[in-house]
Amino acid sequence: MRQHLERGTIAERLGREVLVEVNGKLERALIDPHLAETAAVGDIVLLNTTSVRLGLGTGGLHFVISIEGKSPSTPQADGHIMKLRYTPQQIAVHAVEEQSHPMHAVMAEAESLLGTPVVICELHSMIPAVAMSLQQELQNERQTRDEEKTEPFAPRVVYVMTDGGALPMRFSKTIDQLKQLGLLTATVTVGHAYGGDLEAVNLYSGLLAAKHVLGADVILCGMGPGIVGTGTRYGHTGIEVGLAVNAVHALEGDAVVVPRLSFADPRPRHQGLSHHTITALGRVALAPATVPLPNLEDGQASAVWKQITESGLHRRHRLVGLSGASILDASQRFPVPLRTMGRTLAQDPAFFLAAGAAGEWVARQKKRPQRRVLSGSSNVE
């Protein structure tokens, strides 16, 4: 077990971050909101520099642990549920399930998602693409409905963030952008993740809170930025996709899984359909899910379909074909950067087209009750 701790001096405030002088160099550090209220230029801070010193990508900045001579602001709260339990950084949150929470009575009665679609994303970078494509598809629908003089559908979209990646919601700049643009209505943080509009003890109650407390019409579910992987079949946090399918099924929701596709990732295990998706859906998910597949070039489509048939996913899950191209228009309309593993939409189109297909699928359920299901070919609509 390794942990790098270093001291530095705050040189500049940068919103949610600070610029710190460490060993004669200026380096970025993320600061907790409670610490940020008291932080000032010239303060000496204790930093966790582990991720930077190990050369990690996502999470590759320092984290302020404390400010010398200052205590963090601690707003009054009734919560008694601890997250980051039994660590020096443990914090008390007011979980939505607690008896002292205003929504306790609602949560005590909540049992079902009532068929609500839950779009399950392995990587955080899928979240904005799904949200943007959903809204783009609905915008196209609104234009048609304006001509027909019918009422448009304006869904409440809630993001449930798991603890498979970054734990503080604040770490994601993307979520702030999506909320400001109206692409997300609210957020829930579950497990040891924290900082959402609602806190929940686990994924099951977090999904129910999204539906019954926040009134979600569509739920996006996935980890925060960063994913843990080891190159082994089960040793990665993306395995939670299968667990989420099981949770949604148990709660009577409609599980929609974004497949992890790429033809730009240099690692063979992530070429075409990632081994993460194959394992999560082929070995971990015990219930069927809808898996939207985007329109790809013929060679790419054939390669993906071969992986699907060899792993038997077509027998376990509902595969549907859509364009996915709504993400192309959405990327021009919404000022939200799209990037995964350092690659842009132009550099890794298959990845984002898959997320776009998921957004299209959810949006089009409000338009057309019948969709074509793939059952032996890689053709798409």
TrEMBL record:
One Pfam family hit: DUF3866
Alphabetical list of InterPro entries matching this protein: DUF3866
Name of the protein in its database record: DUF3866 domain-containing protein
Organism: Tumebacillus flagellatus
